[in-house]
């Protein structure tokens, strides 16, 4: 992969922090035409994609760290006899829905693994 220039790196950083593309290229100190040109380059696209992925991995880690706390809050509301019934029901519904989604995701991951294994075996048989 081609090494990014300093301006390209600054543009990627700005694109990750600024609310609009216009604000991004201005913050990075490049013209709109240059920024658009950079965005068409495969090495820039790849670097930007990787930078976005890293940001999302950090966000996901933070969310996972707070998940137990969130479940505890939902549990407190669900079990609080003095909380409005609508709040208790909503908390219970969120807990149940999330539990089902977790099971569904596990099932899908297992099915994908099985399919990948079957495809690998099929490829081996064709070799």
Q: What's the layout of helices and strands?
A:
Layout: H1 6-17, H2 21-28, H3 32-40, H4 42-79, H5 85-126
Helix pairs in contact: 1-2, 1-4, 4-5
Structure description:
By secondary structure, this protein is mainly α. Helices cover 86% and strands 0% of the residues. The protein contains five helices and no strands. The chain has helices at 6-17, 21-28, 32-40, 42-79, 85-126. Helix 1 packs antiparallel against helix 2 and helix 1 (6-17) runs parallel beside helix 4. The chain is flat. The two termini are 31 Å apart.
User: What oligomerization state is this entry in?
Assistant: single chain
Number of helices: 5
Total strands: 0
Q: How far apart lie the N and C ends?
A: 31 Å
Mean pLDDT, rounded to whole units?
94
> What share of residues is helical?
over 70%
Give the uncertain stretches in residue-range form.
Answer: none
Indicate the structural class.
Answer: mainly alpha
What profile does the largest beta sheet have? none
So what's the overall shape? flat
Order of helices and strands: HHHHH
Q: State Rg.
A: 23 Å
- Beta-strand percentage? under 5%
């Amino acid at each position: 992969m081609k090494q990014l220039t300093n301006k390209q790196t600054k543009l990627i950083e700005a694109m990750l922090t600024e609310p609009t593309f216009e604000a991004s290229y201005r913050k990075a100190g490049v013209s709109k035409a240059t920024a658009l040109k950079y965005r068409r380059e495969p090495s820039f696209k790849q670097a930007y994609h990787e930078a976005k992925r890293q940001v999302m991995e950090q966000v996901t880690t933070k969310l996972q760290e707070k998940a137990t706390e969130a479940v505890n809050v939902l549990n407190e509301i669900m079990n609080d006899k003095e909380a409005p019934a609508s709040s208790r029901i909503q908390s219970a519904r969120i807990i149940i829905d999330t539990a089902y989604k977790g099971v569904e995701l596990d099932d899908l991951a297992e099915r994908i693994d099985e399919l990948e294994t079957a495809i690998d075996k099929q490829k081996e048989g064709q070799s």
